[in-house]
Each structure stands twice: as structure tokens, then as C-alpha cells.
Amino acid sequence: MTSTSIAERLQQMSNAKVRYIRDIEQIPQLDPGEREALKQVSERFVFRANTYYLDLIDWDDPDDPIRKIVVPDTDELLEDGVLDPSDEESVTVVRGAEHKYSTTVLLLVSQVCGTFCRFCFRKRLFMLDNEEVSLDISRGLEYIRSHPEVDNVLLTGGDTLILSTGRIDQILTQLREIPHVKIIRFGTKMPAFNPYRILDDSRLCEVIARHSRDDRRIYVMAHFNHPNELTDVAVEGLSRLLESRAIVVNQTPLLAGVNDDPDVIAELFNRLSHIGVPPYYLFQGRPIAGNSGFKIPLREGYEIFEEAKTRMSGLAKRARYAMSHATGKIEIVGFLDDRIALKYHQAKDSENLGRLFTLPYREGACWLDDLQQPEKKNNSARMKWSNN
């Protein structure tokens, strides 16, 4: 499918015409043998897509990056990784609420996404019998009220913008009644998955504008992984969000077969900065069960990002290359011969906050635990790392 034909088809769409697909059998571009093999994958890790996003795929290209993001792969059946590598369970304070960093609480308010990414780091939420998400956020709100140090609330899940506009308004109203909550963030990939959710619902932007005040802003943490997602309608959706007084930024993991190319990262970050959506984080992919096909070694990831930055403006290259480890958000600062330099940008243990340290680098290491096993003292969550 050519880019022209994609553009023409997207112009004919609307939110009402976007269909959600939950069965591999409903993708006619896959041959019967593929569909049969991939059904086994979707039985383990749920499949969900929509016609807008599937239309971005060039089905004549087996290496199409959008296809890799959304269409299952038999590599997902390999026994590798865990379902909660960042140990979110340990920071869950009440059902549906996580408190890992002192000033920030996460409210898991949605159990559905516009499409399920194959690299999702919370795929456990979409499995049977998972009870981490709470549609009733009253206990989470009460927890936030009782913790005045919390000035930042991230609404996540699942995708927050797939909620009805009425529900979003209700959640924002309740949070705005808590004086010490200054920043409310939406974690969302809907601007990429289905921008018509924004374009065809003027009330959504009205609600965001009403709750995004001069001294208490709404932030939208968008999730564009590849330049092919930045269609004309997606850019228009982002513009509507910006016009609604929201601050919009972007974050993406570094993904093998999707954006593990300096040219791709540079194009993505430059185009985002051109439209006023600055890159926020480039994440190291987490060691999630089923995600082995997306893994990139830390040294290779660092080199990709550094080369990409040579092709970016200063505004485009403000993003940090980091991993969301159980102990905190750790920036990959650089390499010193056979050592890797790391820094705690955020930390579960406040004593680690801002800490710079180095570790011997093991070739092929993709995660902090691949470098050196942490030592736990008195079963404390605090991790100590040797510099020897």
C-alpha cells in the first residue's frame, strides 16, 4: 500500500467508522497459515487492533514497523522475561494506585487500549483474573488526599483517552478538588492509535481546557514509536490537544525492528519537535515476557541514540535515554571503555536520587540486572550497587 493510498483512506475515516478487531481471523491480509499460528500467540497475550491503525501497515513489507507493533509474532511464545519487571506490585498502595516516587501517584483507571502493543510492559493487566486496575478510584483519591507531598498524578492503565469523555471529566473534577495536586498527566497512545477519538469529539478538548489551568496544567504523555504513525490526522489530533491548553510530550521505547535506527529516531524526534510535542523519554525496553523480539543491548541502544542526536535540533534531543527499573528511573549516561555510567533520575529510595554510578558492562546486557545482581539488605527495597 502506497503512502498516497493510506492518506486517501484516512481522509475517508471518522471515529464512528473505526472498527475494533479482537480476532486474528479478521485480518484478511494474513494468509491462513499465519492466522492459525498467530492464534496461539493471541491465546497467551491478548490481541486487539483497529482499522485505522491497521491501515497504516504496508502489507507488502514483512518488516513494516507498524505491523511489528500490533500484529502478534510467534517469538512471543519463547520463555523469556517476566510480567512485572519493574515490580509495580511492591508500590501498589491500594487497588488501582501506585506510589513509587514521593511526589507522584499512578492511578490505573483503564483496562483497555485502542490497540494492544506487542511490547506492552503491562500486558499482565489484560490477562484473566487481573485485579490491579480499579474503575472505582475512590480509594486512590482518598490516598492522594492524605498525602500532601503528592502534587503529580498520572492517569494510566490501559489507555486513559479510551474512557468516555464524561468519565474523564468526572475523574479530572475529583482530582481538581484536591488542592495539592498541581499536575495531572494522561498516559495515552490514542493520538497514534486513533486520532479520530480526539478529532470527532469536541467535548473532550473542552473538558481538558477547563481543567488545564495556568498554575495547574494537564499533561498528555503521547506515545509515538515511529514516524509512520505521524499521519496528517494524527498531527491534527495533537494540535487539538495543544489548543486545549494541554502540555503534550512524547515518550517511546527503543524497539528492535521498529525504531532501532538513528535515522528513524532522528526523524521521529525532529517531526515531533516541529509540531510542538517535545520528546520526553527514550526508554530501554523492559524484559517483559514475550518481548524478546524487541530487545536491544544497552551499548547498541546508547550508540543509536547518540548518533540520532547528531541529526537533531537542540529541542529535539532533550529526551533522556532511561530504563524504568524496580529501583527507579535510571538514565543511561554513557560508556567509559568497559564500564557503563548510569544515574538515578528518579528513585524508589530517596537516598539514590541523583546518584551517579558505573558498572562493568557485559556485552549483550539489556537491563540493569544483566550487569550485576542487586544485594538486598534486611529485605529492604533499597538496592546497592558495587562499583568494583
Key terms for this structure?
single chain; alpha/beta; 12-stranded mixed β-sheet; two-stranded antiparallel ribbon; 13 helices; 20% strand
Describe the structure.
This protein is an alpha/beta fold. It has a domain at 3-77. 29% of the residues lie in helices and 20% in strands. The chain is built from 13 helices and 16 strands. The protein has helices at 3-11, 32-44, 51-54, 65-70, 138-145, 165-176, 190-193, 196-199, 202-211, 232-243, 262-274, 298-309, 368-371, and strands spanning 20-21, 49-50, 92-94, 97-101, 104-108, 152-156, 183-187, 218-222, 247-254, 279-284, 320-325, 328-336, 339-347, 356-360, 375-376, 383-384. Strands 3-4-5-6-7-8-9-10-11-12-13-14 form a twelve-stranded mixed sheet. The chain has a two-stranded antiparallel sheet with strand order 1-2. A hairpin with a 6-residue loop joins strand 15 and strand 16. Helix 6 runs parallel beside helix 9 (202-211) and helix 11 crosses helix 12 (298-309). The longest helix is centred in the N-terminal third of the chain and has 13 residues, at 32-44. The radius of gyration is 21 Å and the shape is globular. The relative contact order is 0.10. Mean pLDDT is 91; it is low at 376-388.
